[in-house]
Amino acid sequence: MSDKVIIAEKLTKRFGDFTAVDAISFEVNRGEIFGFLGANGAGKTTAMRMLSGLSMPTSGKATVAGFDVYRENEKIKRNIGYMSQKFSLYEDLTVRENIRFYAGIYGKSSSFIREKTGIVLKELHLSGEADKLVKSLPLGWKQKLAFSVAIFHEPRLVFLDEPTGGVDPVTRREFWNLIYEAAASGITVFVTTHYMDEAEYCNRVSIMVDGRIDALDTPGGLKKTFNAVSMDEVFLKLARKAVRTAD
Amino acid sequence: MKQFLSFVKKEFHHIFRDIRTMFILLAMPVAQIIIFGFALTNEVKNSKIAIWDQSGDAATASLVSELEASRYFEVEQAIHSPGEIGASFKKGKVKLAVIFPPHFNEDLQHFNKAQVQLIADASDPNVANTLTNYASAIIMDYQNRITQNRKMPYTITTEMRMLYNPELKGAYNFVPGVMAMVLLLVCTMMTAITIVREKEMGTMEVMLVSPMKPFRIVLAKAVPYLLLSSVNIASILLLSKYVLDVPVNGSLLLLIGESFLFTLVSLSLGLLISSGAESQQTAMFISLVGMFLPTVMLSGFMFPVENMPLPLRTVSNIVPAKWYYIIVKSVMIKGTGLHTVWKETLVLSGMLVFFLGLAIRNFKIRLA
Amino acid sequence: MTAVTVNNIIKRYGKKKSVVTALHGISFDVKKGELFGLIGPDGAGKTSLFRVLTTLLLAEEGSATVDGFDVVKDYKEIRKRVGYMPGRFSLYQDLTVKENLDFFATIFNTTVEENYDLIKDIYSQIEPFKDRRAGKLSGGMKQKLALSCALIHRPSVLFLDEPTTGVDAVSRKEFWEMLKRLKAQGITILVSTPYMDEASLCDRVALIQSGHILSIDTPQGIVQQFGKKLLAVKAGQMLPLLQALKEHPAVADAYPFGEYHHAVMKGAGRQELEAYLVKRGFEFELKDAEPDIEDCFMGLMRDGR
Fold first, then answer.
1. Disruptive mutation site among C20, C132, C170 for chain A (greatest number of A CBs within 10 Å)
2. Which of A15, B21, B198, B287 has the fewest Cβ atoms surrounding its Cβ within 10 A?
C-alpha cells in the first residue's frame, strides 16, 4: 500500500464559467497533519467535497486512501471520517446512542462498538455522561466527542472542517491533543482552520488563493519563504492578493 | 406610515421572489377549484349497469330505454342468471343491476303492482346510494306517468324538486368549502410561516431592536396576505361563475364583506400561531393539524355536520370555517340576505375579537 | 460619561427543574466613545448579555442602562438609538443590497442619503454589487452590508455580536479597521468575539467564560495582571517536549502556543528547566515570552477551576 493517502493532480472543478478549484496538485502522507488554509471563497470547501467523494471533479486526477475519486467514491466514503463545526452530533441522542449510530453506519460489529465505546469514553473522561443527551454537554466536550466519533471506525483519513471554531483556548488545545494522538496512531488528518496558531501545529500547510494552491510547505518553511515571523503574516501576505470575493 | 408601507413593499418582494410562495398563493386556489369542481365530484355520470330482463315485454323495454336515455346510466350488458350479477360486479365495470321478474307488464296491468329489484355494488356506499336513488327516481317517474294515464283514484304521488341546485351539482357544495380552505391557507398558514421565518433568520431580532412598534411589524407582514386573499376571493368567484356555472345568487357585496370578515379571523389565527411557534415547520404543522384538518372535516363541506355525533357537532362550533361555510352557502347559493346569516356573522365577529385579542396579548415585544 | 452600565445581571433559561444560568451576576461599564470587547468562547453568555442590553431579553436579576436609559422601562427609547448586528448576519437574503439598506433606513425613520457619510467608507466597497441579492454575497460582503444596515440611523451605541466568526483572517483585519474609523466618529461600540487575538484591538475588554467575567481591563492591563514568568520552548519533537515540560515541578502549566510551547513558571527556575531539558536529551530553543490575551485567558480559567 502506498504511503500517500491523498494524491491530487491538476484537480479542477468548474461551475459554469467559474473555476472554483483551479488545477491543484498535492500529496498528503500517511499519519500527516495537513493544514488546508485559505480565505473564504478560495475554494477550500469545493476541494474538500471532491476529495471526500461528495462532488465529481471537472478534470484532473485524484486518489484518496488509494481509491479513485471518479469511480470509487463509495469506497472513499467508507475509508474516511468527517467532522465539521456545523454538523457533528445528534443533540437529542445520548452520547452512547450517537456513537452506536455512527459506528453502525460504517458497519462495525456490536462487540467492536461495545468494546471501543468504553475505551473512547474513558479517554474523553465522559464515562459518567455516556447516557446523557448530547445537548446537555458543554460545546468543547461536544467537539471532542464529535472528533472521536468521526474516527471511531478507524478510517485512514479524517477531514476536519474548522473543528475548533468558537471553542475556548484550553479546550482548543485539548482538541489538538486528540488530533496528535490520532495522527500518531496512523490516521491522516486533513484540517481547515481560521486560527493561525493552529496552522503551526500542522506538519505541512497549504494555502489556497483564488482556487489555486499558492503555497505548500512546513510552517517553518513557509515563514522562511515569505520572510514572516508568524503564519498569520504568511496568510495575510498571500490572501491579500486574492481578487475574487465570492463564496 | 412610511415605515409601514416600506415594510409592506418588502413583504411583497419576498412573496414575488419566491416561486413556492407564489404557487401556494395564486396557483393553489385555481387548482383547488378545478380539482374539486371537476374531478372530486359526487355526481354520477354514465354508470354502467346490467339488466336481467326475465319478462321482456313492452313495459320493461320502455323502462330500460328510459334508464338508458338518462345521462346517469349506460346499459353495459344483459344478463340471464343470478350468478352473472356477482360476476359482473367483480369485474368492476358494472355498479348496478336492474332485475325485472317474469310477467312484469301483466302484473302491472292486472294487479297494479309490479316489482323491480335493484342490486348495487356497495363497496363504495356513496356511489351505490346515489345510483339506486337515481334509478328509483326514473322508475318512479315512469310509474307516475302510467298511473296518470289511467286516472287511478287514491294514488299518492311524491314529487321531488331539488331547490337551489336543480342539477344536484357538487360544485355548489365545494365552492364555499374551497373558499374557506384557500383563505385559511393563505391567511393563517402563510402569515404564520412568514413571521416565523423572520424569527428563524434572525431578522426579527433586528426588527425588534428598531423604533418600529412590534405589533406593527406583524401587522405589516399580514397586510400583503390580506390583499392577496382578496385577489383569491375574486378569482374563485369568477372561476365558479364562468367555469363551474355556480352563480352568486345573493348580494355580491355581502358575500365579499363576509369573506373579508373570515379573512380577518384567519389572519388573527395566523398571528396567534406565529407567536407560539419557533420554527417554520412548527408553524406549518399547527396550521395544518389545528386549522386545516378541522376545516376539511368539521366545517360541513366534506361531511354533513348534522349527521355527526353530538361531541363532534359541539366541537365543530369552534371551527370558524363552519360558520363561514354556512354563510357562503346561504348568500351565494340560496341567495339570502344578512337577515338569515346575522347569527353566523355575529359568531365570526366574536371569534375575530377573541382571537385577535389573544394574539395581541400573546405577542412578544422581546425574544422570550 | 458612561454609555452602558451593567449591574449584577443574572440571566436564567428554562423552567423549574432544568434551569440553566447563562449569566451569573455580570457587572461592568462602558464609557462613551469606547471600543469595548467581550471576549469568550461560544456558550460563555456573550449573546445573552447582548440581548439583555438590546432589550430583547429580560434579565432575572440586576439592572442595565444603555445611553442612560433603563433596558426594561425605557426599551422604546433604547430601540431608537442603538444599532444591533446579531451573530448571524440578519439580512433579507432575497432582497438586493440596496433594497436591504433602503429598507433598514426607512424602518429607522431616516434615509440612506442623510447618513451616507457615516457608512460611505464601508458601503462603497459593496456598492458595485448593489443590485445583487444579499443571499448571493460572500461572507465578508454580507458582514459589510449588515454593518451598514446597523449603522444607517447613526446609532449612539453599536452592538456587534460575533461579527468576525467564520470570516477569514483578511476580512477580519479589514473589519477591525472599519471599527476603528467608526470609533473615531464618536460611536460607542460593544463587540463580542471568540477570537482572543482580537482583544488587543479593543480599548478595553471583558474576558467572559461560563457566564462569569474573568477580568475587565485594557488589553495591556490584562496582560500585566498575568504576573507569572512565561517561557517559550521549541524542539524537534514537540509532543514529548510538552510532556516533559508538564512533568517539571517548576512549571505550573504548559501548552502548545503556535510554533512554540508556552511554559507558565511557578517562580523563576529558568536555569533549572534548561538543565532538565538538556538532561532529557532535547535539542531545544528556549526564550522569555510576553504573555498575550490567550495566555491570560487560560491562566484565569485555570485559577477559576
1. C170
2. A15
- Number of cross-chain residue pairs from A and C with Cβ atoms under 8 Å apart: 95
Q: How does pLDDT run across B261-298, given as a tens digit for each residue?
A: 999 999 999 999 998 888 999 999 999 898 888 888 88
Residues from chain A contacting residue C167 (CB–CB below 8 Å): 40, 194
Convert the pLDDT of each residue in A146-183 to its tens digit: 999 999 999 999 999 989 888 899 999 999 999 999 99
ipTM greater than 0.85: no
Whether residue B155 is predicted with pLDDT greater than 50 in this model: the reply is no
CATH topology of domain C226-304: Alpha-Beta Plaits (3.30.70)
Where are chain A's structural domains? 4-239
Which of C137, C166, C301 has the CB atom closest to A170's CB atom?
Answer: C301
Q: Please, which pLDDT band fits residue B174 given cuts at 50, 70 and 90? A: confident
pLDDT at B44 over 90: no
Q: What is the CATH number of domain B47-150?
A: 3.40.1710.10
Cβ atoms within 10 A of the Cβ of C7, count? 15
Residue B147 burial (10 A CB sphere; 0-12, 13-18, 19+): middle
> Which residues of C are less than 8 Å from B209 in CB distance?
54-56, 79, 82, 84
Collect contacts of A84-90 with beta carbons under 8 A, ≥24 apart: A84/A160, A84/A161, A84/A162, A84/A163, A85/A143, A85/A161, A85/A162, A85/A163, A85/A164, A85/A165, A85/A166, A86/A161, A88/A142, A88/A143, A88/A146, A88/A149, A89/A134, A89/A142, A89/A145, A89/A146, A89/A149, A90/A134
Cβ of A169 within 8 Å of Cβ of C196? The answer is yes
pLDDT digits (tens, 9 = 90+) for B197-234: 998 888 888 888 888 888 888 889 899 999 998 888 89
Neighbours of chain B (3+ CB pairs under 8 A): C
Substitution target from C101, C107, C156 for chain B, most B beta carbons within 10 A: C107
- Among C56, C73, C84, the residue to mutate for chain B (most B Cβ within 10 A): C56
Distance, in Å, from the CA atom of A137 to the CA atom of C213, rounded to the nearest integer, reads 21
Sequence-ordered alpha helix ranges (H) in chain C: 46-53, 75-81, 97-107, 116-123, 139-151, 169-184, 219-224, 238-247, 270-279, 293-304
- C90 with B211: Cβ contact below 8 A: no
CA torsion sign for B357, B361, B367, C2 is: positive
- The residue extents of the domains of chain B are 2-40+169-362, 47-150
Q: Alpha-carbon distance B147 to B140, whole Å?
A: 10
Give pTM, 2 decimals: 0.83
Domain A4-239's class?
alpha beta
Paired sense of beta strands A204-209 and A188-192, if any: unpaired
Which residues of chain B approach chain C closer than 8 Å at the C-beta?
2-3, 6-7, 10, 13-14, 17-18, 201-203, 205-212, 365-368
Considering only CB atoms, which chain C residues are within 8 Å of A197? 257-258
Q: Which pLDDT does position B263 carry in this prediction?
A: 93
Grid-cell match 419557533, residue found: B278
Residue A87: other Cβ atoms inside 10 A = 9
The CATH number of C2-223 is 3.40.50.300
Q: Taken in order C50, C52, C54, C57, is the CA torsion positive or negative?
A: positive
